[in-house]
Specification:
This protein is mostly helical. Helix 1 runs antiparallel to helix 2 and helix 2 runs antiparallel to helix 3.
């Protein structure tokens, strides 16, 4: 009779492979937390995305072990599990991409300032 590792044992076995992603997720969470006041929308998006990625990395070994213990590793359950986790992973990456471009200010080329465009822009802002 073979021994099925517990969720914690499986997590420890997988740790060398998960560690880079866990470190990046943690660093992303810290950077996002430090930027909550200056850039609230991108910071919250990044914080939520990094938390989701970390939860996936830590949760998948436990759920996978639970599935093995209940003999749910047949193709149907296994496929559903990995499709759902892949979709959640893709959504978290999408949030990170959104965070990278959220609340960006318009950038003007140098010619804009050389041609007096800055003065026109300031006049428009003062009139509103």
């Amino acid at each position: 009779m073979s021994h099925t590792p517990s969720g914690f044992e499986y997590l420890i076995e997988q740790l060398p492979f998960l560690l880079p992603g866990l470190i990046i997720s943690f660093v992303g969470m810290v950077v996002a937390a430090f930027n909550l006041r200056q850039l609230p929308k991108p910071a919250w998006l990044a914080l939520f995305a990094c938390t989701t990625l970390m939860a996936l990395d830590l949760g998948i070994p436990f759920i996978r072990t639970w599935m093995f213990e209940r003999q749910l590793q047949s193709g149907d359950w296994y496929t559903r599990f990995y499709v759902v986790t892949s979709c959640i992973h893709a959504a978290a990456l999408g949030l990170l991409i959104w965070a990278a471009f959220a609340d960006r200010r318009q950038v003007y080329p140098p010619e804009f300032f050389e041609s007096g465009g800055r003065d026109e822009l300031l006049r428009r802002e003062q009139s509103t």
